[in-house]
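User: Can you fold this complex?
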Amino acid sequence: MTRQLIERDILTRFRSLILRRLDDSAVFRIGDLKLAYSTDSFVVDPIFFRGGDIGKLAVCGTVNDLAVSGAQPVYMTLSLIVEEGFPMADLRRILDSIRDTATKADVEIVAGDTKVVGAGGVDKIFINTSGLGIVIREVSGSNARVGDKVIVSGFVGDHGIAILSQREGLDFKVPICSDCAPLNSLVSLILKTSEEVHAMRDPTRGGLATALNEIAIQSGVGIRIYEESVPVRDEVRGACEMLGLDPMYVANEGKVVVFVSSEDAPKVLEVMRGHEHGKDSQLIGEVTDGPRGTVIMKTRIGGERIVDMLTGEQLPRIC
Amino acid sequence: MTRQLIERDILTRFRSLILRRLDDSAVFRIGDLKLAYSTDSFVVDPIFFRGGDIGKLAVCGTVNDLAVSGAQPVYMTLSLIVEEGFPMADLRRILDSIRDTATKADVEIVAGDTKVVGAGGVDKIFINTSGLGIVIREVSGSNARVGDKVIVSGFVGDHGIAILSQREGLDFKVPICSDCAPLNSLVSLILKTSEEVHAMRDPTRGGLATALNEIAIQSGVGIRIYEESVPVRDEVRGACEMLGLDPMYVANEGKVVVFVSSEDAPKVLEVMRGHEHGKDSQLIGEVTDGPRGTVIMKTRIGGERIVDMLTGEQLPRIC
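Assistant: Here's the predicted assembly.
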């Protein structure tokens, strides 16, 4: 329904050709430079979770949108909307986390805004970030090519299940951590390794399934995925069964899906596995010449099923 | 207190020299270009008011921050946080207003984000905008010079009183309208008219008094203002008396205060008065060599009083 709202009520009003591409960042030229520009608001609940917090998430979200567009993030803005009476200790912990993540991602926060809103106006804290990056090599979601291999940088569904299990008070023997991480150094390594990276996306809200469908539609290709190759932790699979979810649709916050030529796929996979945020990378499928705009999964038992864009409900306040 | 929070908890963490200038926009070079970059979140309540709405406000706020930094706004991002069940008719009205204001300001919305939050998470709708502009001539708040004249582009306090009177259900014979307007064409005209414009600011939250104090502190100068020259509508003055407010501290959303050399002040004032958003411009004072960081007002009855930064309480959710 959010997608419908965006398509029917937003895109019809704002006739920007840049916006209409619906890529992770807006990419444009100013003078001699090609820049990428992106924004995201974060309303995650709980605000502190295993593996991160709303502050880390807000930096990573924007850094990753720029990175998967082929840009090196340079500058960011930070806008806080804080509920009156929000504990200062929590605010400081979030600000520390923002600082540490920005330092790690090597991005400078250059502008900001802070609003304090009376009780009932906002639940705890919302954060908006925007970011500006210099495009190293433009990577669009509309350029995946028939024959490309599809690589995902690690286990899927960790972020969503970390949030949900905390929200529902579920306990696991091995607690599930959010994968929230800045991906710009991994992506920059991938781009250095191959000139034949045709598309990238960070599969956040809506999970891997949504990201794959978006790329299949934007690029006008088919995508075939092998269920047994998609890395899912046992604990995440178990939690998904309990909660009635499909890990393919559960949010990630530190993963990238890469579309690269068949020839370059092995070396890209190898360098990804050598990086801290890509060590569990897997080749999960390939791009086919049809059916266009469709993602098909070869199941474990040898069948085939269509992985739709809109299965199940979107999880609220997951990021 | 928000200022204290920003100074003590935010600026101590983010050591960006660009951020620390605390100007209306971050200004930096990328390649051969000088860019301005700014962000603002809008939480105004009510969301529709005489003279505008939260959407118009969100575009104008960012456009004006870029403009008073001496930049021509080019690209914007738009991020919506909407309460579940928010009426679609209201959302469409706000989106129309955003589109119309962006068209008027000649700025392109190139990226966005939309989050829908369950009831209790957010009150109606919050909007964040960020904007990127090309600096035509850098104008900082720290460059006001002794001898400069101070010009304000029209009546002060209209926005704050329009919001408050609606919130409090006050009725006036002549209803007060918000002054919310994009100022980039006015500012561009001012910059074309004089090479000796040394500082500008749009006096929003905290009103004219706060903007003048910020410039006095950043520039290390004194500012002397003549009370009788500050344009305040009779209805705004009356409402302020009723509500126990000082119009000098009440928010504006379509005003600019300009610091220009004494020689160029008359011609700048003249072109401002010829522009639709500057027709009630007034020369209200001048920059003095002391006391540094202090704004002094010559009152109607011939006395002098210090116009502090922090008189009275900040009005919540005024923008």
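The longest strand of chain B covers residues 71-83. Residues 43 and 126 of chain B are 5 Å apart (CA to CA).
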